Every structure is written in C-alpha cells, then in structure tokens.
Amino acid sequence: LWMFLANKMTDSVVKTYITYNRGRDWRLLQAPTADLRGNSIRCELPYCSLHLHLHVSANPYTSGNIESKDSAPGIIVASGSIGAELTTSNVSMFITSDAGNTWRQIFDEEYSVLYLDQGGALVAIRHTPLPIRHLWMSFDEGREWNKYSFTMSPLFVDGLLGEPGEETLIMTIFGHVSHRSEWQLVKIDFRSIFNRRCTEGDYQTWHLHNRGEPCIMGVKRIYRKLKPIARCVMGKTYSVTMTSAPCDCTEADFECDYGYDRRSDGKCTPAFWFLPSSMSRSCTTGTTFINSTGYRKVVSNNCTAGIIAEYTARRQHCPTQAPKGLHLVTSEGKLTATLGTNVTFLVFLEEGDGARTSIMVDFGDGHALTYSNVSSIENGVKHVYKAVGIYRVTATGENRLGSESVVLYLHVTCQLEYIHLSAPFVAVKSKEVNLTAVLWPSQVGTVTYIWWFGNNTEPIITLEGSVACTFSREGVNTVTVQVSAGNAILQDRKAIAVHEYFRSHLLAFSSNLDDHNPDVAEWRLDVSRVIKNSMVKATGVTPERLLVSVLPGLPTAAEFFLLPDKELTEGKPDKNSLTEIILSALNQNLVQFTLRPGVQVTVYAAHLSAAPLVDMSENHSGSAMLMLLSVVVLGLAIFVVYKFKRKIPGLNVYAQMQNEKEQEMIQSPVSPTESTLVSPNTPRELVTSPELMDTELNTRPIGE
C-alpha cells in the first residue's frame, strides 16, 4: 500500500488530501472540470477542491461512502462535495479511473455502488427514504449509466448484497413494500445482459502514475485491465496482472530523518532542538558509526541507484573527544533515599569515548569507586548509606583528552510537586541580588531550603524561600536550590552571568509563537539560542556580547542582554550605538526565525525595558555632587521657611505655595525611560524613578 486518502481538520475546517508515497507528501484533490450537465466548474486550488466522505461501512448489507476493489485497479467511487471544505449538504457521487489523479461527477445525490464482474460493471441504487423500482448500471467505469427496472412495485430498499466472489454477476436487493410488510428479496442475474466473454483484444495496459510521474515508491507499475468500451464478461478466469520495474532514486523517494525538518525549498535541515554531533556519543575510538545525511528512504520504497548514495547515511570513523555531557541520577530519578537500603546511581555520558573514559563515583561519605569505562556500569552503581544526612555525590569522567564532573546532592532520610528558582539571568559584580524559590503547591508544611553556590562544598540552609547574595567574580556562576518537604526533595538550578555592567531590553514576538509554546524550560532554552543566533545574524553583534532569555508564561516574552566588550581596557560601557543598531533591527522586523516549516516568527522590541544599563564608571560623579548640593540647599530653605513662617506672614503664603507644588510633583507619575544610565556612586535619595531604584538595589529577577 502506498496511496492513501485522508481527511484533515484545521481550524474546524475538514479537507481531503491524497498521498502517493505513504504520507511523505500530501496534496488536495483536484475537483472535476465539469458537472453532470457538462457545465464548467470553476474550482481553483488551494481555495477550492474536492472533498470526500471516507466512511467505510461495517454493515455487509450496505455500502459505505467510498468503495474500491483490488480486482479493479485505479477505480474509486466516493461521495463528497466541491468547495472550500467538506460538507454534509449538496453531496454528490464522484469516480476516478486513474487512482485519484482526476475525478468525474456521476450523480448529484448519494448512491450505493456495487462492483460486479471484478469491476467490469458498476451497479448504483439511490439512497432515499422513498420507495424506488429502478437501478443504474455502467460498463465503462462510470462514464455512461443505463437505467433498469428491478421490480414491478416500488420497494423501500434496506440494502443490497453481491454473491460471494468478486467475479459475480448476481446481486440481491432486500427491502419492504410498506412499513408494515415483511422483507422482500429481489435477486437479479445480470448474465443475460452480456452476450460474450472477453478476449485478449478487450484488454489494455494502464500505467499507475502520480500526475504523469510513473515512478511511485521507486517502482513503475503497469496493470492489465478491461477497456472502457468493452462489454463482455471477464468471469472467474480473469486475474489482475501487473508488471513492475524499479526506478532510479530521486529526492521524492526520501523523507527527513529523525531530528531534521523540511524547509520551504524541500531541503532537510536539523531542527532547532537537534544536535547532529550527539549521534556519535556512544562511539568508541577505532570503530565506526552511521552518520545521517538528514534523509532516509520512505518505508517500502524500492528505488535503486540514482541519488541513493548521496542521501543514504554514511559510515564514518568515530571521533576522538573528551567526555562531555556527563549525567548522574539515581535509578528512580529521586534525590532521596531510605537509610540502610541500596541506592543505585546511573551515570550517562552524552559525548566522548565511553570505552576509554574512566568513571569515578564519590559517594560523599568517605567512600569512592573507580571504573575503567562507562560500559562497566551500565546497570548502575549501588551504595548503602549508614547515616542520615545530605551527601554530595560526585561523578567524574576522564580520558587522555580531558575530564568532566557532575554533582548530585542526595538526602538520606510531604509531598512537594515542583519548585522553580527565580533568579536573574545576568547580575552585576559585587551587587546584591535576590534569589527566590517558588513552590507548587505553595503550602506544603515545614520546608527547608538548601542553597548551593558554585563549587562550594557547604550549603546555606534557610527556612525562608528567598536569599540575598553577591558574586565577587565575573563569569558564569551556578546556583542550585533544594527544597525538603517531608519525604520529598526537589531542586532547580540556574546559571547566572556576572559582569561589571550590562544593558538589557524586553523582546516581544508575533502572536503565532504562543501557539507552539509548551511553557517548559527545555523549550525556552532552545528558543533562546535560536533568537540569539537570529539577532547576531541581523545586527552583526558578536555572540559573546549577547545573551537572550525567554521568560516563563504566556504571552511569550524574552529579554536580551548586551554585555561589555572584553577588549575595552578602561572598564567603561560603550556608547548607545550598538544598542541603537539592535533596537533598529528589531523595530524594522529584521530579526526573524523559522520555528518549524511554515511557522515564521518575528522578534521586535517591547515598549518597556526590564533592566536599564548599570554603569560602573565615574563619569557622572560631578553631576551627582551638584544634584546632592542642590537638594541640601533646597532642604535648608524649606526648613527656614517652616521655622519662621508664623513670624513672617508673607512667608506663610510662600510656604503654602511650595507645599502645593510638592504635592503636585509627588502625584505626577515619572515616566521611566527604556534605557537609563545610573552611576553606583549616585546617592540613593537622588534616584526619583522607581525603575532606577530597582536597578540600584538590583532586586528584580531578570530572565529565569
């Protein structure tokens, strides 16, 4: 089987599609060019097409909405409608003689169709609640229909049935004369209509094709079938014969391999979440592995030669590389263990020569084991803890090219479902930031929070879900929080980039991205990388200076961070030119990416910045002192007026006017700018914008 018909619902609209290569490519059905009366039908794809009801009857006494037979290749009879979608009104009957390439209308009402003489004749009876006495018969694949009477008295038809065997010329109609009468059976023998048996001259060859392309699933198929003009009996001796020959492979014989998506130009490229190099992670140096080209032959396709060598996966030598992507988990995937019971640790290596990478597991209680390779611990490493506590379990993979370590914090001892560590994506060096652990559900009884910073071996334990910290060095700092509630231990981990200063701005997206947002951390991480690459390509900014973080929740939002240029030796932030270039590209809709085939997402700048630039230079110290002096003088003036306003009447009026002005200033909202420079040396009382106060305190989480 290679040719299929299917109905697909999109936005509550059902349309019929056809495929000739087991579902790799689908297309709409071309409607007939004329109706029963010969009038032209104007129906242009893709706005208008033929749609079929694809219900196959489970009742042997009635036909379904679509009928076909193996003994009648290429002939399909079905009920349906022409238009923008499939409807249950204005249903007509349609037939194809070339396996779905072209269709003809045969009735403008629903009929039951029965195949006789292996498809050499078709019999049709109208679907109607009224009694009937006629049927229709065609000997030329539905091009012409002859009317016959099968009873003298009209009959309410309940069903029809052919005799066993597809070569039969006998059918039975059963029904009742009235609603109170018993069933009436009418047996019809059509053998008297034919006056001879078919000879070799009554047959022709028919090439199965797809819009004129004879190679379907890599094979040319030629059938022997009855000519439409022949009116003869094929009988039991007739059998469908087919000759076939293989075709050279073409691009149409291949589909995209796992991890690859087909672009609009037909090429298969890696999906945004797929890393092709990960396919060699289980490779051993000196051996080979199958490296995908991005394509694989469609199942059951029998093409040969052609481009098969170019599209078929190639066997390549395994690369020699250091261990990368080391994972350490327990066999049950939990971070808790029962005292005195076996705990099984599983160690996984994503990339590297597993056969030549030694694994050392330190259980954190003074015991450690070393294994010569990863394969020797496929069933896990068992260990029994003899004391209650929190253990820092470390797994280290090492070979001659490098090493990598991974840490698991195991609690050896209610039910907490999920936690999320809310932390800034980027922080300022030596500036205090707030970290918050959010729990679901929020009330789970007594909760203990365990905070791990970087490579510190001792955690910070609190009873509150928030903690303040500072980072004294630039670079990526890892923060891990574990929450203990009853017997449940859950954790979340975030990497925070620490810099002297940075500039950030919120991003928004075209609404179609929300339809594909599952709101999970893995998806946000993958999409953040894609957005960053798109911004780098559109603006020319170096990747090292740009960070992007997709924020949780809907509608989808993100934030980009412009980091300082490490080449600058004065430690001063660069001008706004680069930021203006990025914002200009966003405002001109130059930053776009393809989420999947047919889904193009546009990235643009939101109206409000979430974190302004923090400037650690001393450029603004002079203006800050001037502002401070002005505030001091103004304060002294107000104080003098207040003290002496009772003695000097004129000053009472002046003080009242000043108070009214101050009230107006307090009530007037301050419009925050999208990007603001703040000096850390500026006194806090001079910061009048709520946004600038948040920046100085650095308490608002940025990103995830």
TrEMBL record:
Keyword check for Amino-acid biosynthesis: no
A Pfam family it matches: Sortilin_C
Transmembrane segments: 624-642
Composition bias, Polar residues: 668-682
Chief place where the protein resides: membrane
Region called Disordered, residue ranges: 668-704
Membrane topology of the entry: Single-pass type I membrane protein
Protein name: VPS10 domain-containing receptor SorCS1-like
Family assignment from sequence similarity: Belongs to the VPS10-related sortilin family. SORCS subfamily.
PANTHER family documented for this protein: SORTILIN RELATED (PTHR12106), VPS10 DOMAIN-CONTAINING RECEPTOR SORCS1 (PTHR12106:SF8)
A single BP term in Gene Ontology: post-Golgi vesicle-mediated transport
Entry keyword annotation includes S-adenosyl-L-methionine: no
Keywords from the named record: Glycoprotein, Membrane, Repeat, Signal, Transmembrane, Transmembrane helix
Segments forming domain PKD: 346-403
GO cellular component, one term: membrane
Localisation: Membrane
